[in-house]
Amino acid sequence: MSSPTEESVRRNSESEAGGAETPEHDPHYEPIVSLPLVDIQTNEEEEEELVKIRARLYRYDTGDHEWKERGTGDVKLLRHKVNNSVRVVMRRDKTLKVCANHFITPDIRMNVHCGSDKAFNWSVFADYADETCKQELLAIKFGNPQNAELWKTKFAEAQEIVRTKCSLYTQDQSSDDESSITRSEDTDTPEPKSSDKTEDEAKKDQGENKDSDGVVLKLKELKVESE
Question: What is the pLDDT of residues 89-117, one digit of tens each?
Fold first, then answer.
């Protein structure tokens, strides 16, 4: 039998031998199925970003008559490169699900929410966050007053871009101008009345009247002779 001292020495030697550094083994296996890279379209490829700020969005539930949180994430103003339309787009963190998606119109009013210097509310006629057109009353809250003021300024700039450069609104203004010019021309130069006749037509009518008078006289003479 070995003594306790020898047993401890043997264990120490075994532990030292087992603790010796060994080269790391990193096996590599080729995948059985190769998955191609997929280019995901976000429908933002033809738009440029005007501003992006982190915020929290709420919507007013008309059924329960209360504000409900819709998500937290980055809210963006995106300007289309061709027709100059601007829309509000916001996606939730992690899931990236859309929680706000609507176009900006010149008649939207950005109101201070509950007297806070970090929150605003506004009403939109058509929001497509749920992939269906819905009228919504939205509220947004920022982390500090500086971000809130930046959002308000950029929103007003976007409304000015839409009003002056968006093809939808500029076409309406041009059509209104053309119609006003047409109406003014109509009032200045009225069309001739249908009762007005030319000189040739008047002479023709006089000739027809004379012929009819001659026919009447001949009929009277025939009647006298027959008697």
Answer: 999 999 999 999 999 999 999 999 999 99
Q: Got the DSSP string for 203-221?
A: HHHHHHHHHHHHHHHHHHH
> Which two structure tokens, joined as six digits, stand for 21?
């550094």
Give the Cα-Cα-Cα angle 40, 97, 59 (nearest 5 degrees).
150
Q: How far is CA 160 from CA 80, 86, 156, 192, in A?
A: 14, 10, 6, 45
Q: Phi first, then psi: what are they for 200, rounded to 5°?
A: -65, -40
Residue with tokens 């790391």: 24
pLDDT reported for residue 209? 56
This prediction's pTM: 0.62
pLDDT in tens, 28-75: 888 888 888 888 888 888 999 999 999 999 999 999 999 999 999 999
Query: Which residue in the block uniquely carries the two structure tokens 């409304």?
Result: 159
Here the tokens at position 46 are 């033809």
Beta-bridge partners for 98: 91
